[in-house]
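General statements about sequence and structure are easier to judge against a single worked case. When preparing material for the folding task, we compiled for one chain both its residues and its backbone structure tokens. The amino acid sequence and the backbone structure tokens for this protein are reproduced below:
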Amino acid sequence: MTPAELFVDAYAKSKKNQPGKIAAEGTELLGVANRALRSAFLVAARVNPFYYMDEDDVTYSAPGWARPAAAEAIYRIELNATGNEVVVVPFDDRAAESGTPAVYRSGGIFKSAGNAGDPESTDDLRFFFSRIPTDAATTATPMDTAYPVAYRELLVLEIAIYLARKDGRMDEADILKGERDSWLQMYLAHLEHEVLNERGRWGQLEPFRVPSLVPISSLFQGGSSVEV
């Protein structure tokens, strides 16, 4: 799935689209494609932060540990040597978790909270996070392969909407937005239920009873009176 392939499908949404004329493919439209994918990853960070999960070991570099560049939403930090959790406390209440390894945020740096047992400069920290996608460098470069190809139409429609809006075809853009929203709902539903059999020591989510953001009725043309 390359940006160039997405462009072809986006152009096909309207007879008025002029390939390479409304927007320069190698710069402007490439940025639109990368931004569309970034939006899809942002949604996942809110709905299912483990879907695009990644981790990174960070060494101390004064005055602390730098936030991983690929991190969209950090949800756990550990001492790399022991696996013990490192909690994040407010900068103005650094003793909030006294007795538990703790850091506080200062811009893009995590600093030791300064209490006994808190991380020291000799410690490496492991960050677990929902990541941002890798941008496609050119129109021929594959998009981030973690994104499910089954929902490529969401990206296609984002590009098509951009073309219509830039060309002043606002009525057409509104129609495309309706189609885009349908694909967004399906993508959200996928994120909500993509794994239902996870089990841990603190209980298990009951299958098919995960709280949903997407009503079943919204997944079908014109809606439906059927609810589950």
In short: Confidence is low (pLDDT under 50) at residues 206-210. Residues 9 and 33 are 12 Å apart (CA to CA).
